[in-house]
DNA sequence: CTAGAATTATGATTTCGGTCATATTTCATT
DNA sequence: AATGAAATATGACCGAAATCATAATTCTAG
């Protein structure tokens, strides 16, 4: 089993602010786990007694609405932490986490990490910064949901994934999402998402290779009205 | 000028976790201010060099969308802190804060409070908890925006204001919002908000006294489909 | 390799909510 | 008190997007 103090993944999240000693201690009680594509890591209402550090793979955070649709609120990728919010408030999970890939996770029990949160102020300030960033993104999503068209939201989603998670060698988005996932991010019907993507294709803004999407005209996508 | 260490308002926010000494120090450098209804406390892009503690009154946090509409993201009331997010990330404000009432605010300069954030872990953990709570609320709003009708969102907004900010002696919501504010919370056109409120009246769910709103049938409002 | 399932795709129709137009009421200011 | 401005209210119409229907394509499991 890998050691936290040597793990490069921590560079990407708040764990980097822990001391060598703290990391060694955490390393001793963490558990590694593999989850398969489609597996649910936790669901709404679950009591999370720890946080996950994503070593590899991607997952979605979503919430089932009363109309039966699953709204995706955030995409969590390699390097991110998972479940911090519930850890901090002590509430059960507000969202469901579902693997979009095969994933490799490290689970750190609450008892270990809460001490560090209370004693290592650099660490807690880092967590605070991440949370503040998530809150800003969430606020921006609210504004987009309320004020922009499906067409604009979908264009922005494609750009967001491109800018934040990068592309494969062939130029396609490295995060592979189904049309349903796109619909659930944008908050629209699957048919509408597909229709708009087809339209983007016709307009030469994107190309699709199977379900993979490649941006052809980033400036054009940004200008979508 | 009032003293922070004696101020009862701090009971309602993270400042309660500061020590007597820290509060005395803050008290020495804070500035009190009065803002009038409609005044903008800060706007998107402003560099905030401190946080505000709301001693009295109410304000809205909103963001101007590209379509010219102002989406309200959060209502901030007496007892709340204002501007923490920007303080923590060091970014400029992402939202605009506008007074809905005459307000009384205390401004605490960044230089003072950041030290406490880094040194008093109980305080920073409290701020973290508040931020985590805000994030949960924001996630829930995203889901509602994406998946619910204007009718449902407006019903939930009325219930939210009722439950979180209370009522006047006559039973009307104590937070007085214009129809435009309601529209900007729900993310709809003013006319649509007015239409739905009229409908709620016809159905006996609410009564209006001038622009004030009174819930007549809370259970009915909760059941709105 | 093939059958059935899931996903992607497209068309037809309906509906919710936006926009525009226009009263009516309330509010602010002289 | 009077006048103009702002907020509230309601109707008519239109358009974006949901729903329903049905292919076509891709995946998956036996």
Could you explain how this protein is built, in words?
The structure is a homodimer of 225-residue chains. Chain A starts with 19 loop residues before the first helix and ends with a helix. The first copy, chain A, is 43% helix and 23% strand. By secondary structure, chain A is of the alpha+beta class. The longest helix of chain A has 27 residues, at 121-147. The first copy, chain A, has eight helices and ten strands. A four-stranded antiparallel beta sheet of chain A has the order 1-8-3-6. In chain A, strands 2-7-4-5 form a four-stranded antiparallel beta sheet. The A-B interface holds A 63, 65-67, 69, 71, 73, 84-85, 88-89, 91, 94-95, 117-119, 121-122, 124-125, 127-129, 131-136, 138-148, 186-187 and B 63, 65-67, 69, 71, 73, 84-85, 88-89, 91, 94-95, 117-119, 121-122, 124-125, 127-129, 131-136, 138-148, 186-187. The structure holds a DNA duplex (30 and 30 nucleotides).
């Amino acid at each position: 089993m890998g050691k936290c103090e040597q793990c490069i993944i921590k560079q990407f999240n708040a764990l980097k602010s822990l001391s060598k000693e703290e990391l060694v201690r955490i390393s001793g009680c963490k558990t590694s786990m593999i989850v398969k594509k489609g597996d649910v890591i936790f669901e709404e209402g679950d009591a999370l007694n720890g946080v996950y550090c994503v070593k590899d793979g991607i997952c979605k955070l979503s919430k089932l609405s009363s109309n039966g649709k699953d709204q995706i609120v955030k995409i969590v990728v390699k390097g991110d932490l998972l479940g911090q919010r519930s850890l901090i408030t002590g509430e059960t999970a507000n969202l469901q986490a579902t693997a979009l890939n095969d994933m490799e996770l490290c689970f750190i029990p609450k008892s270990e990490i809460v001490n560090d949160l209370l004693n290592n102020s650099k660490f807690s300030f880092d967590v605070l910064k991440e949370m503040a960033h998530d809150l800003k993104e969430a606020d921006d999503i609210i504004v987009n949901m309320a004020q922009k068209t499906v067409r604009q939201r979908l264009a922005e989603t494609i750009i967001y994934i491109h800018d934040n998670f990068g592309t494969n060698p062939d130029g396609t988005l490295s995060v592979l999402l189904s049309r349903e996932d796109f619909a659930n991010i944008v908050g629209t019907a699957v048919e509408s998402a597909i229709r708009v993507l087809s339209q983007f294709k016709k307009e030469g803004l994107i190309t699709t290779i199977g379900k993979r999407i490649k941006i052809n005209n980033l400036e054009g996508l940004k200008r979508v009205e």
